[in-house]
User: Which sequence fits this backbone?
């Protein structure tokens, strides 16, 4: 499409017979069979940016190899089913078994009102967007196939949502399952005269279920910022030997503020920071069953090099259910702020692992966050 246009179907029925051995049959509806390996629907105006395009009520499918139980699976080397360049588009679509789902390039103000399906390599990729993109209802579920071979491929190679430079994205309802990366943050190098950069001011909620990394920030990023509300991240327990990490920050100068977080079944750390001068702050963390690999990973960790650059993990309050240390990192890299009631209170079950010659500092603060005088009893 080279101008503002509406493609509206009657909707689709995604799957009639979900199976763990092969692939599901499609139901009725407005289906588009992309019978080649190239791009599907492309919105790309020849000159100026366009607004008001809409693609809704349709589903796409590809002629992927048929899954066979636990047999190794690899999808076709296909391009994106949908590509938007220099345009704003409203999406309500189903991508049944795309190798790559939706690519947005300079597509600010696009609205993913409803996107469902099982894209196999990447669901939604935003290379650059200089105005808000809204992720209204994105649900990446294995409708097409639940075969173990497909699931293993996705855990090794698949990304749900991949944001390079995406200014002020809004997440309202995003769910993914069986992904190596639930939400991945990258860096846009600049192209066609468009400025480079990293996603900033991300806001909202998401859930990443049975994956490797829930939120992953690439090493090349610089200045990623986010305000998240109650992210729910559960790592796969089928790969206890894999260092699954619900929140993994490798980029520099990141600032991630989280209202509360539920992080479950980490093979290694629940939160790990390796990038320089990056800070993760969680007001309340509920962490269950980290260090599944049983090698002594702490729930929260900042590498020594990152700690020396100013990187930190700050935890307001927590509920920890695990046997390995809660904190373990470079000197001064992790902070636990435990709210104290008017009457004496206790923090029990907290294990801190620190390098030799470390100094631990305990401060008593009131509800107004001011340092108070008082007594602190440590039972060793």
Assistant:
């Amino acid at each position: 499409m080279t101008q503002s246009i509406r493609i509206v179907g009657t909707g689709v029925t995604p799957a009639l017979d979900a199976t763990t051995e092969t692939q599901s049959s499609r139901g009725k509806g407005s289906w588009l069979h992309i019978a080649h390996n190239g791009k599907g629907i492309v919105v790309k105006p020849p000159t100026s940016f366009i607004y008001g395009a809409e693609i809704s009520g349709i589903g796409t499918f590809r002629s992927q190899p048929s899954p066979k139980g636990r047999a190794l699976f690899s999808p076709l080397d296909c391009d994106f089913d949908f590509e938007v360049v220099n345009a704003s588009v409203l999406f309500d679509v189903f991508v049944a078994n795309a190798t790559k789902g939706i690519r947005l390039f300079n597509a600010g103000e696009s609205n993913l009102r409803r996107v469902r399906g099982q894209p196999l390599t990447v669901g939604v990729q935003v290379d650059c967007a200089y105005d808000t993109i809204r992720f209204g209802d994105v649900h990446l579920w294995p409708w097409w196939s639940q075969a173990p071979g497909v699931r293993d491929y996705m855990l090794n190679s698949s990304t749900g949502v991949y944001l390079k430079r995406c200014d002020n994205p809004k997440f309202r309802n995003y769910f993914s399952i069986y992904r190596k990366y639930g939400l991945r943050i990258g860096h846009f190098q600049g192209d066609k005269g468009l400025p480079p950069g990293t996603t900033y001011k991300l806001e909202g909620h998401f859930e990443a279920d049975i994956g490797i990394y829930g939120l992953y920030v690439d090493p090349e990023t610089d200045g990623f910022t986010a305000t998240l509300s109650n992210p729910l991240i559960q790592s796969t327990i089928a790969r206890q030997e894999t260092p699954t990490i619900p929140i993994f920050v490798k980029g520099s100068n990141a600032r991630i503020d989280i209202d509360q977080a539920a992080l479950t079944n980490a093979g290694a750390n629940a939160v790990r920071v390796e990038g320089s001068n990056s800070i993760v702050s969680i007001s309340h963390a509920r962490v269950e069953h980290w260090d599944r690999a049983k090698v002594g990973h702490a729930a929260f960790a900042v590498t020594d090099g990152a700690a020396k650059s100013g990187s930190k993990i700050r935890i307001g309050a927590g509920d920890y259910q695990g046997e390995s240390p809660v904190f373990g990192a470079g000197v001064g890299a992790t902070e636990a702020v435990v709210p104290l009631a008017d009457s004496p209170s206790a923090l029990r079950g907290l294990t801190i692992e620190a390098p030799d010659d470390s100094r631990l500092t305990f401060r008593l603060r009131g509800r107004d966050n001011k340092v108070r005088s008082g007594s602190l009893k440590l039972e060793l």
Q: What stands out?
A: Helices lie at 148-157, 304-308. The longest helix spans residues 148-157. The radius of gyration is 23 Å. DSSP finds two helices and 31 strands in the chain.
